[in-house]
Amino acid sequence: MKVDAVVNAANTDLRMGGGVCGAIFRAAGEKDLQNACDKISPIETGQAVITPGFQLPAKYVIHAVGPVYHQNIALRCEEQLRSAYLEALKLALQNDCESIAFPLISSGIYGYPKKEALQVAVSAIRDFLNQHELDVYLAVFDKDALSVGEQLQGAVKQYIDDHYVETHIHSRRKLLDVEERALLEPDASVYLNPSMLRPEKSAAKPSKPETDGQIKESGARHPQPDDMETPICFAQQPPSGNLDDWMDHLDEPFTDTLLRLIDSKGKTDTEVYKRANIDRRLFSKIRSGNGYLPGKRTILALAIALELTLSETDDLLERAGYALSHSQKFDIIVEFFIVNGIYDIFQINEVLFEYDQPLLGSK
Questions:
Q1: If pLDDT is split at 50, 70 and 90, which confidence band does 87 have?
Q2: pLDDT per residue over 259-288, tens digit each?
Q3: Strands (E), the chain
Q4: Distance of alpha carbon 76 from its chain centroid, rounded?
Q5: What is the mean pLDDT of residues 235-261?
Q6: What is the DSSP letter of 62?
Q7: Neighbours of 23 (CB within 10 A)
């Protein structure tokens, strides 16, 4: 990974081992990295030290020693594992790192249960980021580390089954009558809402990946021929709240709407971008306006951070030219959490990961 530091799940002697430790040594250059480690070994469980990255893309390797797990001393193991993460994070800041990538420490041959190891990692990293600025990545080997609770998993599955639409409307479908077509004038705004209409059965069309980028036009786009793949509803529904207030902000640009929501929800900029799991620099770029509009996933991450209702989320998305679609599992999963008032972005990402969907936030 192209980060300033990668974390090695090390042993106390800082010797080359197997697993991720062996992989890091081989990639960095076994001889160079071992010579550097020999000068600062041994270290204690729960501690961390730093060496150059040598041949790695990363500038540094931070060697953090997690515990060998024993159930009869589980609490002590948790304290040591948490310490390993925090000490590594402190070293990253002390060495002017802006980004760091962790493996799931102690979850391999050290026997720490993957689910519990992930909980410790997320808790430690989250607590640290509440006080400091750093881009932190946690790389997991497989889905075994993420275990979505059965009750939540069942509720999400039922919601997907109830709302997922696998088909799209063909662009030539005779969906719009004469009166509806008359609304397609140059100054007509459109609100894309796939849940409002029932699509005909046809071949599914692969979705295009969402990316952040420069969008020259603001507000809703006028429909093009290819847009008719998505059902169109012209009866735009106002977000929750006072109708007069909504009318006052009807033509408000995306950035103005976002800043107004931050103020109305009583949150700070820092709180919002951290809760949204996005980079401070990206947030500053969004906040400055200058014609830049974030991608759909970033907007949804901001909606989660602001704890928006579904109608507020729809409104914020529309101001950047997007809409939630019931033909996309990603959209339905995020919608489930918003509808149920669950705004923990890490919990949402665990479910998205379970369904092989892109994650909210990050870059």
A1: very high
A2: 999 999 999 999 999 999 998 889 999 988
A3: 5-10, 48-52, 60-65, 99-102, 135-138, 191-192, 213-214, 232-233, 292-293
A4: 31
A5: 68
A6: E
A7: 13
